[in-house]
Structure formats: C-alpha cells, structure tokens
Design a protein that fits this description.
- Helix content is 37%, strand content 19%.
- A hairpin with a 4-residue loop joins strand 5 and strand 6.
- It is α+β, with helices and mostly antiparallel strands.
- The strands form 11 sheets. Strands 10, 11, 12, 13, 14, 15 and 18 form a 7-stranded mixed β-sheet that branches.
- The protein is built from 25 helices and 36 strands.
- The chain is globular, with a radius of gyration of 34 Å.
- The structure holds one RNA strand.
Length: 822
RNA sequence: GCCCGGGUGGCGGAAUUGGUAGACGCAGCGGACUUAAAAUCCGCCGGCCGCGAGGCCGUGCCGGUUCAAGUCCGGCCCCGGGCACCA
C-alpha cells in the first residue's frame, strides 16, 4: 500500500484542504434569518489589519469558533461574522516608512489576513464581511453623528492635546515617550483645540444601572466599568474669593467642611491663570504643569507639588480666610477643577499639607469614641463631627443633610451627582479616519452635512508626508458650499476616533448590504450578540463605547436592543517565555508557519488545551508538538478501529460498564465545560482521558473481539469525533467519514449524557482525623451516614491516630469524607 | 498614583459550592521494540524521612476564622492589564 492511498497516514495539509473545499462548496457557514429557529450570534472582536495574524488573533478566533461550532451542533441558527477595524494610526506610520498610501497598505493587509483566517477553517459567514474604512460603512456613522448633533448629543468644546512644537503635529499618548516626541525627542506641550464630543455623560446612569443586568459578564469587567463611570453624590459649594469670581468646589465629604484649611485649583483653572498674570514665578509653575502630557497616569504619578496663588478665599460657614493654591494633582477634567482640602481626613490633602506646612484640623472622630491618630496619615473613615460648631455630634448622613440644606437655603451650593466619566472626545487631527461630516460657514456657523450629501468621502489616493493630514494640507478638499445659505464654506478636516467604527460594527453585520439605512429588521433578529469574545485590554473603553452606541442607535429609533453583548468572555494575553509576545523582545511566534507544519487543527487544539481562555496563555513549541502527537494518535486509532473484526471470543462486562460510565461522564463534563464554564482546557483534558481509555481498549482487544465490545468501541469513537468537532473540525470531519457517516459532522447532533449511565456503585471515602488524611476506603455509593462513620472508625490506621483520645465530634459529608475530631 | 486581575511541582495548568492538592499535558528519568535512529509502547516523576507500612512538610509572605483553607477575612510583597489620542 502506498502512502497516497493509505488513509491511516495522517496528512493534515491534505485533509484540511479537502474538508475546507467541502465546506465552501456547500457554502455551509452562510446564514439567513429564520424566525422558526433559535438564533445564536457568536462574535469575536474584529482585528485591526496590521499586516498579518498574530497569536492573539489565533487564540481569540479559535475561542469563538469553538463556541460557534458547538452551538451549531446544539441546533442553533449560528451567525459568526468577520470584518476589519481598518482605520488607525499604524497605517499612517507604515505610509511614512514605506511611502505607500494608508489605504493601499490597509487593503493589501486585509487580503493577506483574510487568506490566513481562512486557512484556520473558522466557520465565518464571509458574505457579511465589513470593512470600516469603506464609505459604504462609515457613511452611516456620519449619518448617525449628524442625528446626534441635531439632538444636542454632539457638541464642540476646547480640549487639550499633546503637541510637538517642532513637528507641528498632534501626538497620541502612545507617541509620547517620557514626555518627549517619539520622532524628534522634543519636549511635548499641551495645546488647546476646539474638538467634537459626544455626551456619554447623559447616559452615565443608564450605563451604570444596566451593568447589574449583565450577569453573564465577568464580574471584574463590570466592576471596572462601575469604577470608570464613578458615580458619586456630593455637594457643589461656593467659596467667595477676594477680588475674583467665587470658586466652586465639588466634595463627597461635606461632613468635613469645617476641617478645610486650604483650597487647591488645577493649573488650567482660570483663577490660576488670573493670579499668574502678575507673578512670574507662579506663571512659571503653571507653565511647567501644563507641559505634562495629557495622559492621566502621567499626571497622577507626579510628585505632588503646589504653589500659593497669593489669593484668599472665605470659608462659607466660619468666615475664616483660607489660602488658595495651585496644585498639580488637581485635574481640570474632574468636578470643577478645584477642590477643598481637608488634610485631617484625606490622605492626599494630608501629604500635601505636611509638605507645605499647611494647617491640619481634625473635625471627625470615630463613632465609638476614642481619639484619631494623625501622626502618620489622615483618618479617612466616616464618623461623628467635632470642632464643627453647630454641626458637632452629627454623623455623616446627618451632616450631609444639614450642610446641604444650609447651602441650598442661601443659594451658595447644591446637591450634585458627579461622574468620573467624561464626555467622549471623538475628534482626531489625523488623516486615516472617517471625516467628521460638518461644515463651517462664516454666515450660518456649524452646519451638518445633509443626508443626501453623505458620505463625506476620505480621498484614498494621497501622498502621505507624515506631518499633517492630507485633507488638512490640501487647499481644495475642504472647500464646499454651505448647505443652508449656498455660500462658500469649509469642511471639518478632523476625523473620527477609530473607537467610533468599532462601536456599532456588531449590529451592522446583520445587514451589511443595506445602502438605504444604518440598520434594518435583520438586526432585530440577530441582536444582541449572544457571545462576545476579545482581549481583556478592551474591558473599559471599547465595551463602554459600544454599549453607549447601542443606546444611541436605540434612541434614534434604529433598534429596540439596549445592550449589545449578552455574554462576554475576555481572553488573556498570549505569552512566550513568561512575557508578552512583542517585536521588541524578539519572542513573537508567527501562527502561519505553525499551521504549515502541523495543520490548523493541531494549532487550534494546543491553544485551547493549555490554559483557560481568561488567563494568559503561554506558547510552547513542545506543547504544540504534544498536541500534534495526540491528533495523529486519534487518527490512527480511529482508522484501526474500523478494521476491528467481530469474533466469537470472551468479553468482559465489567470493562464495558467502566467504559460506558466514563463515556457518559465525559459527555457531561465536556458539555458543561464548553457551554457553562467556557474552560476549554479542562474539556480537552477530559476528552484526552476518554481517548486514552479508548486507545487502551483497542490495544487490549487486538484484531478481533466480541460483538458487544466492537459495538461499544465504535460508539465511543463516534462520540469522540463529535465532541472533538469544535476543536479540530477538519480532522473530525474526515474521521466522521472514515467511520462511515455521510454529510457533515457539524450538522450531527451533539451527544447527550445519560444520567443513569453515570451512576457509580462504589465510591472512595476519605477519612481524616483532625483534618488530616488517614485512610481511603471503598464504600457503597448509597451508604448512609452511620455506615460511613462505622466504616471510617473501623480502619486500623484511623484507630492508630485516635489512640487513647476521646472522639469529640464526627463530621460526615456523604459521598466525600469523614472527619473525626479527637 | 488610582481601578481590575494573577501568584499552586522542573514547566503550562487541574482542584466548579470551604471537604482527597498536583487531573490533563510538556520536559526529564528508566525500560521495551530496532543493526541503529526516528516513530511507537510501558513504567516512574513536589520535597524530606523510612526496607516497608507509613510519617512530616508543602499552593508568594505574615496573621486570623473553621472540624477542615489553594479556596473565606485582615495586612504586605511581586507580576500583568487599564487610565480616556495604541487598537
């Protein structure tokens, strides 16, 4: 027999090519809306087309494919689409480096990566492919934006960006290294620009409240989003300032009001600017603060510094004069950009006061009496007010209420709900993004582009110089006429944040071909996404923006769906040698050669088997080798099984019963691991155990066996092939055929466990004395507590440890253990 | 700095609701087959003590709750993710 015709030789390349041809001939991943069938929408975060697939993609998309293929076998109408998050900075960087237009670079990457994805055998409906840099896609984003503008949900305000004074360009946080420009090493400045914002804060309460209903999201993600939104209840209070407008501060601790010993404002606060006007050293300090890059992490890690403004404010209750300082830890973006400082009861205020010799005045004592210790830090608990005049003796709630009422009555303060969440700045001063569809008219002001004139198309055939966006430098692109008055006017030349495109693509997959509306009835059939999978690094921004967009689309009447993702799985990082794969570290493993060498199934199996999806995953060359060994072994054994002859020989009913039990316990565990727990690594471990048992059985039976044994072994392999389908779909399909079946294994029903077959007659009983393991006994599975206790006490080693001591207590956990306390 | 995770053999990990620590795999070691190698198959595999039965120790560190703690609570250390213009 030559190798070509010997099916027992495992040739992944040949098998996978043939099976993929079979799938594409039958077009079996294309789906349509079918109200008669229950739908399942399985989605992975779409990739940025950076060049070629990396292991993070391979892992992500295999996870999704396992779920999609499993659900299909459970009878669902499964949609699994794929597309491209195609706008972004890397295309501009590549354009500078290789002198190729961003569009061309992006499209050629997409073509390459599509081929790579197809080689993996993912069950995608490619007819729904979406590419965000195409006008037919971003057109609807522009359309929605003009609706939002009309509703007052999109507006302009001045906000800071990182600015390189040498390159004369805006820098992303990523392009700032140690406060310097990554290209020319110039110290980065802040620059104030008028930019577009979306009022996500209008939706803060709903975004927060709905988190409670997202019970199938990881608790960590929900907690991070809650903290990010950061709802707090407090008071906004007014402090009179000599010679200036009153200063507004926001506080969540009005109970500490009488302990305020200074006020602090942000460097960007108008009062700081006013004070700096005639104080050069103060101006220098304010200027220095403004040089810090825009990123919050950069500001928060600075040494806490400040300087007096030489201005005094009046305490609104006591009338005392208190100093006002400018401090680098006060954020202009949060609250009012000014804070009241209570060093005795706030740690940051304490450290600052200690450093600058400011007064520390305790005004809260513990509810249970006793003194607070301020020798090495603030006392930040809630308690009872002291040294607070008329408010003495009140607790937190009482003081909050009394002080709030006082300020409400005299009109110098109000209760206020505040959010840490800020409105979403969507303007980017870059070229490779969707143009913001607005027009500036000297006469009419800001005018949205009318629906009939959409999309505002980004020119793709451009010379990209690197510094300055081509649509900003081109004198003609921006020229247009005002839709309102018909006079010459200019287009907005900023483009959208790329998070805009990724905030609604999941809904567009339902109707990617609709050229008359953003969404249609098909999205009501498919949405929401039943299972969403992607990197944990998106836990806050992308997922929050997507939730926000879904609500925006609902509120303009496009859909009824309020939340886009019913169930969420956040996958961990892919590591090599204990660290994240990166070009810098030179430890990147390219999936492509791995597939060429071992086949897609082996790579998929290994990536699913070595770690649970939400944990980081460590690539190991030896590990993938092991996975390959297993697939080969499965193949060989299944082939050999088909040659097993029936003979009139003895058979062992006990062995058969054991295998039968293991078979059903495995079906049960694998089903639960995939469906509920999503721990594919333990599902595969269980499948390997069943496989190993089947292999041993096959070896033990030899060339011929009793009819009952042959039937059972055949059944076992049938089940294995189906349970393995989500993980190694090509091999599974080929073996399905070798086992004599027609059609597609993924259209075969998922095996179901028979609870009766899982019942054990005997169990192992663990016996402890004082919590330490002293014996393992085999007992009847249905033995009662008394019988278990008797059996435990009857063991010699147990008796040895009880010795002369009196038995004080016996804990019996049926089916598990007996613990004897002496 | 703030928010969220994680830390278990030589390695990746398992232990699902507080109840047998180390499933499954990788590496290693020993053996079988072979002229040989590869492939394959069998056995061993946390540390220490013991001929053995078995015993002691052991889940980042310190302390606590409990009959019982990898799991719960308090305090630390280290690593990773996010911090609004990376995607």
């Amino acid at each position: 027999m030559n190798e070509e015709s010997d099916v027992s030789v495992f040739d992944p390349e040949r098998i996978e090519t043939r099976v993929q041809t079979l799938w594409s001939e039958r077009d079996c991943f294309r789906v349509t809306e079918d109200p008669e069938r229950e739908k399942f929408y399985c989605l992975c975060m779409f990739p940025y087309p950076s060049g070629k697939m990396h292991m993070g993609h391979a892992r992500n998309y295999t996870l999704g494919d396992v779920v999609a293929r499993y659900k299909r076998m459970r009878g669902f109408n499964v949609l699994q689409p794929m597309g491209w998050d195609a706008f972004g900075m890397p295309a501009e960087n590549a354009a500078i480096k290789n002198n190729v237009p961003p569009a061309q670079w992006t499209y050629s990457n997409i073509d390459h990566m599509r081929t790579q994805l197809q080689r993996f055998g993912f069950a995608y409906d490619w007819s729904r492919e979406v590419t965000t840099c195409r006008p037919e896609y971003y057109r609807w984003e522009q359309w929605l934006f003009t609706r939002l503008y009309e509703k007052g949900l999109a507006y302009q305000k001045v906000a800071a960006v990182n600015w390189c004074p040498v390159d004369q360009t805006v820098l992303a946080n990523e392009q700032v290294e140690d406060g310097r420009c990554w290209r020319c090493d110039t110290v980065v400045e802040r620059k104030e620009l008028r930019q577009w914002f979306l009022r996500i804060t209008d939706y803060a309460d709903e975004l927060l409240a709905e988190l409670d209903n997202l019970t199938e999201w990881p608790e960590a993600v929900r907690t991070m989003q809650r903290n990010w939104i950061g709802r707090s209840e407090g008071l906004e209070l007014e402090f009179a300032v000599d010679g200036h407008d009153p200063l507004h501060v926001y506080t969540t601790r009005p109970d500490t009001l009488m302990g305020v010993t200074y006020l602090a404002v942000a460097a960007q606060h108008p009062l700081a600017a006013a004070a700096a006007k005639d104080q050069p050293d103060l101006a220098a300090f304010v200027d220095e603060c403004s040089r810090v890059q825009a990123a919050e992490a950069a500001q928060e890690t600075l040494e806490k510094r400040g300087q007096p403004l030489g201005i005094e404010a009046t305490h609104p209750i006591s009338g005392e004069k208190i100093p006002v300082l400018v401090a680098n830890f006060v954020l202009m973006e949060y609250g009012t950009g000014a804070v009241m400082a209570v060093p005795a009861h706030d740690q940051r205020d304490f450290e600052f006061a200690t450093r600058y010799g400011l007064e520390i005045r305790p005004v809260i004592e513990p509810l249970d009496g006793g003194d607070i210790d301020l020798s090495d830090g603030a006392w930040v608990e809630r308690g009872r007010l002291v040294n607070s005049g008329e408010f003495d003796g009140l607790d937190f709630d009482g003081a909050f209420e009394a002080i709030a009422r006082r300020f409400e009555e005299n009109g110098r303060g109000r209760r206020r709900v505040n959010y840490r969440l800020r409105d979403w700045g969507v303007s980017r001063q870059r070229y490779w993004g969707a143009p913001i569809p607005m027009i500036n008219c000297a006469r009419c002001g800001t005018v949205p582009v009318p629906d009939a004139d959409l999309p505002v198309v980004l020119p793709e055939d451009v010379a990209f110089e690197g510094v300055g966006s081509p649509i900003k430098t081109d004198p003609t692109w921006r020229q247009t006429t005002c839709p309102r008055c018909g006079e010459p006017a200019e287009r907005e030349t900023d483009t959208f944040d790329t998070f805009m495109e990724s905030s609604w693509y999941f809904a567009r997959y339902a109707c990617p071909d609709n050229d008359s509306a953003m969404l249609d009835a098909r999205s009501d059939y498919w949405m929401n996404v039943d299972q969403y999978i992607g990197g944990v690094e998106h836990a806050i921004l992308h997922l929050l923006y997507a939730r926000f967009f879904q609500k925006l689309m609902r509120d303009v009447g496009l859909t009824k769906t309020a939340e886009p993702f019913a169930r969420l799985m956040t996958q961990g990082m892919v590591l090599k040698d204990g660290v994240k794969m990166s070009k810098n570290k030179g430890n990147v493993v390219d999936p492509q050669p791995m597939i060429e060498r071992y086949g897609a199934d082996t790579v998929r199996l290994f990536m699913m088997s070595d770690a649970p999806p939400d944990q980081s995953f460590e690539w190991s060359d030896a590990g993938v080798e092991g996975a390959h060994r297993f697939v080969r072994k499965l193949w060989r054994a299944a082939c050999r099984m088909t040659t097993l002859k029936t003979a009139d020989v003895a058979s062992n009913a006990g062995d058969r019963a054991a295998l039968h039990r293991l078979l059903h316990k495995t079906i049960d565990k694998v089903t639960d691991d995939i469906d509920r727990r999503m721990t594919f690594n333990t599902a595969i471990a269980a499948l390997r155990e069943l496989s190993n048992a089947a292999f041993r059985r096959l070896d033990a039976l030899g060339a011929a066996a009793a009819a009952d044994d042959v039937v059972q072994l055949r059944e076992t392999f049938d089940v294995l092939v189906r349970l393995f389908q989500p993980f190694i779909p090509h091999t599974s399909q080929a073996l399905y055929e070798i086992l004599g079946h027609d059609g597609l294994v993924m259209d075969a029903p998922w095996p179901l466990a028979d609870a009766g077959a899982m019942v054990e007659e005997e169990r192992e009983l663990v016996v402890q004395v004082n919590g330490k393991l002293r014996a393992r006994l085999t007992v009847a599975a249905d033995a009662d507590k008394a019988a278990l206790e008797t059996a435990a006490l009857g063991d010699a080693n147990v008796q040895k440890f009880i010795g002369e001591k009196a038995v004080r207590k016996v804990i019996v956990v049926p089916g598990k253990l007996v613990n004897i306390v002496v």
